[in-house]
Amino acid sequence: MSNTDIEIVVEDPTAPEADSPQMASVRVVDVVVCLLLLALALTLGYDNWRTGAGWESTGPQPGYFPFYLSIILGGASLYGLVAAFLSRREASESFVTQAQLRRVMAVFVPTVLFCLATQFLGLYVASFLLISCFMRLVGKIALWKSLLTAFVFTAAMFVTFDVAFDVIMPKGPLEAALGR
Amino acid sequence: MEALGLLMHGFAVLLTWKTLLLMMTGLVLGIFVGVLPGLGGPNGVAILLPLTFTMDPTSAIVMLSCIYWGALFGGAITSILFNIPGEAWSVATTFDGYPMAQQGRAAEALTAAFTSSFIGSLVAVMLITFLAPMISSFALRFGPPEFFAVYLLTFCSFVGLGREAKHKTVISMSLGLLLAGIGMDTVSGQLRMTFDSAELLRGVNFLVAVIGLFGISEILLTMEERLALRGHAAGISLRVVLSVWKDLPKYWVTLFRSSFIGCWLGITPGGAIAASFMGYNLAKRFSKDRDSFGKGRIEGVFAPETAAHASGTAALLPMLALGIPGSGTAAILLGGLMVWGLNPGPLLFVEHKDFVWGLIASMYLGNVVGLVLVLTTVPIFASVLRVPFAAIAPMIVVSCAIGAYAIQNAIFDIWLMLGFGVVGYVFKKIGIPLAPFTLALVLGNRAEDAFRLSMIGAGGDLKVFWSNGLVGSITTLAIVLLFWPVIDKAVGSVTRMVRPAKA
Questions:
Q1: Is B232 among the domain residues?
Q2: Is B248 within the bounds of a domain?
Q3: A55 and B81: CB-CB below 8 Å?
Q4: How many CA atoms lie less than 13 Å away from B238 in the CB half-sphere?
C-alpha cells in the first residue's frame, strides 16, 4: 500500500462554531437535574408510603422497596446538589454553547413533530415527511435526492415490517385510503 | 465432553440457508451501524431488535448477536482510517492504528485489528462453551436468597468499582430500580407509582428506555459535534493479510495476555473499556521498545482489540449462565430473551438447549464469517461515511420509533422513548453513567422478587442471606465491594501510618 494521501474527505458546512457563547455551565444543569430528581424522589416516596412501606410478618409490603429507594435517590440527589454547588470544575465547564444548542434543536424539534405526526398520520407518512424535510431543510440536500431517499427508505420499512415480518405500525388516513 | 456434542448439535441447528442468510444480514447491518458516527453496539442492537420480534428465538438471537459482532468489527474501521473511535473501547486502537494508516499501512492495521478481534472473541467463546454449562448447572441449586445475593453483588460492584462519582452511580441505579417498580407489583398484585394513569399501568418497558437512552440521545450528542472528517481509504489484499498472519505467532504473549484480561474484565460488569486500555498499557509496559508505541506499532493494535473483543464476548457468559448481563449490550440481548418468551437464568441450559447451543455455535460461526466479510468489504464500508449525517439522522429516528412502538404497540411508548432520549443526553453530559441505570431497569423486578420470595420462605428473617456458606459469602462480598472505596482508603492510611514508624 503506497497511497498515503487522504482519500475520503467529508466537510461539515453547518458545524457549530467553536467560539459560540455558552448557554449554561455544567454546574447549572447539574443543580437543576438534582432538584428535579429530588422532586421525583419525594413524589414517588410519598406514593409508596401511601401504598404501604411497612414490614409484615412475611416480609416487605409492596411499597417497601420503592420507598427506601426513593430515600436513597433523594439522599444521593441532595449530596449531588451540594457537590455541584461546591464544584469549581463544573462551574467552568460548558454544558452547551449557543451554536450547539441550535444544532441539537434542529434534530430535536423535528423529532417531536414526527412523534406528533405519527399519532395522526401514521408512522409511514410521518417518516416520509421527517426524512425528506430534514434532508432538504437541515441538510440542504437537493430536493429530488431528499424525496427519493425518503420514499425509498419509507417503502423499505413498510415492506420489511408490514409485509414481510407482520409487525404492525400505527397507520393513518393514507393507508386507510389505500386499503392496508 | 458433553459440551462438545451439544455444540455440534448447535452447529447442526445453524447450518440452514435461512440462518446463514440471517447471519450475513446481521453482520452487514452491524458493520454498518459500527461505522456510522454516533452509533455502536448497544444502540445498533437496540434499534434493530424489533426486526426480530416475529422470528423464532434462535433465528432472532443469531441475527442480533451477529449485529453485535458486526458492530464490534465496524468500530475498528473508523478508529484506524479516520481516527474516530466508534466506541469508547476503540479509543485505545486509535493510538497506534491511526499512525499506521498515516504511514500508508492502513491495510496492515485493519488486518491486525480484525484478526485480533477474532482471536479475542474466539478465546472468550471457548471459555463460554466450557464454563457456562458448569456455572449454570451449579446455579440450578440456587434458591431465591442465592439469586438475590448475586443480584446484590452485581449492583454493589457497580457502585464500589465504578470510575464515576459514587453519588452519580447511586442516582442512576436507584432511578433505574424505581422505574422498574412502576406498574403492578408481581408478588402482591397491587399497583404502585402509577398515579392512576392507564399508560403507566404497563410499567416502563426496558427496551423502550434503552432505545431512547442509546438511540435518540446519541443523535443529539452527535449533532453537537463537528462532523467533518478526513480519512484514508484502504483496500486489503490477500498478500497483506497473509504477511500479517505469518507474523502473528511472534505476538502470542500479547494476544494471550489481552485475551485473559478481556475475559476477566468482561465477566465482571462494565469491562470492555477498561479491558482495552489495560491490554494496551500492559503490552506497552512489557515491551522492550516502549517508545515506539503510539507511533504505529502493530502490537498497539493487537493488544487493545483482542482485549476489547474478548471482554465484549465474555460479557455474555454471566448472561447465559445466571441471567445477569455483563455489559450494556448483553443487557439488551437479555431484554430480547424476555420478549421472545424465554426466561433468562440457569434453567435456559436445561429447557432451551437448542437455543443456547445455537447461540454459542453462532458465536463461532459469526466470528469466522465476520472476519472474512470485513476483510473483503472494508472499502465499501469506509465509503459509508460519505453519506451525510442529515440523511442518516432522520432514518435512525424513524428506526427508533418503530422499535419503541413495536414492543407493546403503544403510542405512549414513542413519547416515553423521546423522554428517555432527553434524559440520556443530559445524563451523559453531566456525567451520570447510564450502564447502572440500564442494568437496574432490567434486573430490578427480578431482584425484588428474589428478595421477597426469600423473605416469605424465611418468615421475614434477614438472616437467611447468611444461612449457608455460599449465600453468606456472596452477600458479604457484595457489602465489601459496596464499601470498597472506603475500605481501600482506610487500608491505605493504615499502611501509611505504619510505614513511617518502620522507617
A1: no
A2: no
A3: no
A4: 0
If one compares A19 and B171, the residue with the highest pLDDT of the two is B171
Owner of C-alpha cell 465484549: B312
Q: Is residue B461 part of a domain?
A: yes
Strand residues in B185-339 grouped as ranges (E):
191-192, 229-231
With CB atoms and an 8 Å threshold, state whether B181 touches A65. yes
Q: Which of B230, B401, B427 sits opposite A123 (nearest CB)?
A: B401
Of B208, B288, B227, B217, nearest to B254 by C-alpha is B288
Chain A's closest residue to B416, CA to CA, is A115
B2 inside 8 A of chain A by CB: no
The complex scores an ipTM of 0.89
Q: What is the mean pLDDT of residues B6-33?
A: 83
- For chain A, the structural domain boundaries read 23-96, 98-178
The answer as to whether B474 is a domain residue is yes
Q: Please say if the pLDDT value at position A3 is more than 50.
A: no
CB contacts of A161 in chain B (<8 Å) are: 50-51, 402, 406
Pick from B170, B188, B223: CB nearest A72: B170
Domain count, chain B: 1
Q: Does B187 touch chain A (CB under 8 A)?
A: yes
Nearest-Cα distance to chain B for A82, in Å, is 11
Which cell is B269 given? Answer: 460488569
Distance, in Å, from the CA atom of B3 to the CA atom of B228, rounded to the nearest integer, reads: 50
Q: Which structural domain, as residue segments, surrounds residue B472?
A: 2-226+253-502
Question: Between vectors from CA B406 to CA B401 and to CA B409, what angle results, nearest 5°?
Answer: 105
Interface with chain B: mutation pick from A2, A7, A29, highest number of B CBs within 10 Å: A7
- What phi, psi does A24 have (nearest 5°)? -155, 150
The C-alpha cell at B81 is 482510517
Q: What is the pLDDT of residue A1?
A: 40
Q: For residue range B454-489, what is the model confidence (pLDDT) as tens digits?
A: 888 877 777 888 888 888 888 888 888 888 888 888
Say how many C-beta atoms besides its own lie within 10 A of residue B459's C-beta: 10
Element (H, E) at B184: strand B183-184
CB contact under 8 A, B398 and A12: no
Could you tell me the pTM of the whole model?
Answer: 0.85
pLDDT digits (tens, 9 = 90+) for B218-249: 888 888 776 666 777 667 778 888 888 888 88
Q: Would the CB atoms of B53 and A80 count as touching at under 8 Å?
A: no
Interface with A, mutate which of B171, B241, B448 (most A CBs under 10 A): B171
Record: contact A130-B233, CB cut-off 8 A? no
- Distance, in Å, from the CA atom of B309 to the CA atom of B258, rounded to the nearest integer, reads 10
